Amino acid sequence: MLLNRRHFLISSAVFAAGCAAPSGDNPPSGSGGRIVNVGSRAQYLKDGVYTNYRNQGFFLVRHGAALFAVSAICTHRKCKLESKPDETFYCPCHGSTFDPNGKVTSGPARRDLPVFEVSPDEQGMLLVKIPG
Predict the structure, then answer these.
(1) Helix (H, G, I), strand (E, B) or coil at 98
(2) Percent helix, strand and coil across the chain, each rounded to 5?
(3) Residue spans of the chain under pLDDT 70
(4) pLDDT by residue (tens digit) across 73-100?
(5) How does strand 89-90 pair with strand 82-83?
(6) What DSSP designation does 13 have?
(7) Which residues, including other chains, have CB under 8 Å from residue 35's CB and lie 6 or more apart?
(8) DSSP helix/strand/coil, 20
(9) Considering only Cβ atoms within 10 Å of each terminal Cβ, which end of the chain, N or C, has fewer?
(10) What residues does 131 pair with on adjacent strands?
């Protein structure tokens, strides 16, 4: 079937819309990771662990002026971690524990949790960069 100019332009526009700039939760193609918009700094004023993004693979941690993201995935066998009231992390699969900074406190895990970059965008929203 041959496309006339009008159909070609409509098809091109639909294709371009599908390839449009990524949303805040997806990185540019080829970046090897993803970016998650976690809102404004004002949402994280109190010290502690914020579990809102556990299902996206990380916890936000606030200690004084420091705000950072720690992986919610155990480095032993990739089980999803739980946050405890004392701000530590526990792996329900094999019992590994981590301190609030992601350092191993008890095995079988041997590697600390990855810490992800948190930085503001042009509008002041905080973005967490999750490597691929």
Answers:
(1) strand
(2) 15, 35, 50
(3) 1-32
(4) 999 988 999 899 998 999 999 999 999 9
(5) antiparallel
(6) H
(7) 24, 25, 26, 27, 127, 128, 129, 130
(8) coil
(9) N
(10) 33
